[in-house]
Amino acid sequence: DLIQFFMHLEQMQSAGVPMLDSLADVRDSSENQTLKDMMTDVHRTVSEGSSLSEALGNYPKIFGNLYISLIRAGEDTGDLKKSYDQLIKYLKWVDDMQSKIKKATRYPMILLGTVVLTVVVMMGMVVPQIVGFIKNLGQELPFYTTSIMATSEFFQEFWWAILATPIVLVIAYKFIRKGSEGFAYQMDSLFLRLPIAGVLIRKITIARYAQTFGALFSSGIDVINCLKSSQKTVSNLALLEALDVVQAQVQAGSPISKAFNSSGEFPTLVVRMIKIGEESGNLTPVLQQVSDFYTRDVDEAISGLITMIEPMLTALLGGMIMWIAVAVFGPIYSSFEHINT
User: Fold this and answer.
1) 140, 216, 228, 244: which has the highest count of C-beta atoms within 10 A?
2) How far apart are the C-alpha atoms of 268 and 205, rounded to whole Å?
3) By three-state DSSP, how is residue 200 classified?
4) pLDDT digits (tens, 9 = 90+) for 161-181
5) How far apart are CA 105 and CA 95, in angstroms?
6) Helix, strand, or coil here: 112?
7) Which residues contact 272 (CB under 8 A, 6 or more apart)?
8) Going by C-beta distance under 8 Å and a sequence separation of 6 or more, which residues neighbour residue 213?
9) Using an 8 Å Cβ cutoff, are 272 and 289 in contact?
10) Contact 73, 52 (CB under 8 A)
11) At what angle do helices 65-77 and 223-231 cross, to 10 degrees?
């Protein structure tokens, strides 16, 4: 909806349609009732003399600081079309990035759900029906059989605890994180140190930061405000601390490339690219290249994650089924051998 909203405004601006007529047209053509109601208020506010950035600023949950900064920059320079173009490009990038993240998590979540469902059905329904028969065989049971019998009994007796534990842990984590900034920082640092997910979290965060910074800077916004607005897209406290250092050093007069290098979060290649852009006076296209670099890097990281997770979960499911099969049918086949002797 937001992409279509800004595309509509961009097309109207290119055609020379007045702002109020453009807003009225967006309002009347929108199929999203929330957007329609919002545009009714925006149209009224602008008709009363407010700027578009001020009118959209009344809806911070929909139009964040990045949107307002870009539109205000377009109003100051008289080139709203360029601001719309940057927003459309940014929103399409975000939509594409979200699709890739969903792609990276969808199949593993389905497979993990299959594993959990298999365990629950086998332990809660299938194994208990066979346990009685196995106990009546009158023979010494191997460890893998007794272990699965104990696991099945645990499932039957404490199924409520098994279901409630993940929910309780998630609620407790969110509660503690909200109440303790130190705990939140330690957890964010831990997430970044995870073998596979940590690398992906870092790359996605920096990619979003670089894309936002590039969009703001190319619209004519000064570097300090670009850095401040870009940081609002970062939620990981450990990375946010490093980017605070970047902002502080740039405010103190340090070149952007040097500040990024001192943060320790940007690859050397990216730092060199930014340095070349600063020295040549062509920082805007270089920032776009940095964004493209991280976007490709995220693509490769997500593809590698999917490639690694799929066989791991498949092996886990296969191992679980094999354990159940051996534990259940092993003693039965063994009893047949005793009968033949």
Assistant:
1) 216
2) 17
3) helix
4) 877 888 899 999 999 988 888
5) 16
6) helix
7) 257
8) 226, 227, 230, 287
9) no
10) no
11) 160
Distance set, CA 310 to CA 118, 196, 204, 273, 301 (Å): 17, 14, 21, 36, 14
For the chain, the distance separating the N- and C-terminal CA atoms, rounded to the nearest angstrom, is 75
pTM value is 0.69
> Residue 180 is which amino acid?
S
Phi/psi class of residue 63: alpha, beta or left (left: φ > 0; alpha: ψ in -120 to 50)? beta
DSSP, collapsed to helix, strand or coil, labels residue 254 as: coil
* Residue 264 φ/ψ region, left for φ over 0, alpha for ψ in the -120 to 50 degree band, beta for the rest: left
pLDDT grade for 336, boundaries at 50, 70 and 90:
low
Q: What CA–CA distance (Å, rounded) separates 323 from 22? A: 65
Q: Which two tokens stand for residue 19?
A: 């702002």
State how far the Cα of 168 lies from the Cα of 171, in Å rounded to an integer. 5
User: Using one digit for the tens of pLDDT, what is the confidence trace for 124-142?
Assistant: 777 777 776 776 666 677 7
